[in-house]
Design brief:
about 240 residues, alpha+beta, twelve-stranded mixed β-sheet, globular
Length: about 240
């Protein structure tokens, strides 16, 4: 048993040495391979084919792991309209500098240049710092919002998580897996807007090669799950730079 334990310690030491020591000396070839790997993993997420959810990136900088992101989510129109109002009325969150504001389309969420780090062991992308939220449904917000954007690879399918919170601490979560989008807010009146949508209007059937989609009311557990997953990623040292 002691021999087995010693071998495990030896393997851990070797792995740490390779990641922390050898990883510092990057050749042009390793930089190219890491950039290719990063983009390949990112493309796997953007190729998610669902009628109600899509994610598109622009101005990708693989070295800095930064990009602009547009995310489209099909859910309650009234929910999103009220969400826009809450973020536009937020006077606490830091505004985005005028020279960093760009024109946006009508995507559900339009984010400015942001860092999205790829964690190898956890198989997920995780945002760093406040999220530069430019607009919701094409309506200007232009504020640095506290929150989390996470894209996770999984055996059962890829997952997407979004957490946003206003300066007055009203928060929203969007969790997507296998064609199901769970939407939730700390404001119960917001959740009632979702519950009023008929079951028929929550569904989008498969069409033009894109899979079916349905949005549902989430729960407070969604936020706990997102924060735990984010912490697990940040606690990991195995991240590609």
């Amino acid at each position: 048993m002691n021999i087995l334990r010693d071998r495990r310690y030896f393997i851990v030491i070797i792995v740490l040495f390779c990641f922390l020591g050898c990883g510092n000396a990057q050749t042009p070839d390793t930089i190219y391979r890491e950039a290719f790997s990063y983009k390949k993993q990112l493309d796997n997420f953007t190729n998610i084919s669902s009628r109600g959810f899509s994610l598109v990136y622009n101005d990708l900088d693989t070295g800095a792991q930064q990009m602009r992101i547009n995310m489209n989510i099909y859910c309650s129109r009234h929910f999103m309209k009220e969400m826009v109002r809450k973020f536009q009325a937020d006077t606490i969150s830091e505004p985005i500098e005028p020279d960093s504001i760009i024109s946006v389309d009508n995507s559900t969420f339009s984010f400015g240049k942001m860092t999205l780090k790829w964690y190898v062991i956890n198989k997920c992308f995780l945002s760093e710092g406040p999220l530069p939220l430019l607009a919701i449904n094409g309506q200007p917000v232009n504020k640095h919002i506290e929150g989390v954007l996470m894209l996770e690879r999984g055996k059962g399918g890829d997952r997407a998580y979004l957490f946003l919170v206003t300066g007055s601490r009203v928060w929203f979560t969007f969790t997507f897996l296998l064609g199901y989008m769970h939407v939730y807010s700390s404001d119960n009146e917001m959740n009632e807007l979702t519950s009023k949508v008929s079951a028929r209007k929550r569904n989008l059937n498969e069409k033009d090669g894109k899979s079916k989609y349905k949005f549902l009311i989430g729960s407070p557990a969604d936020l706990n799950m997102i924060l735990k997953k984010a912490k697990r990623c940040k606690d990991s040292i195995f991240a590609e730079h």
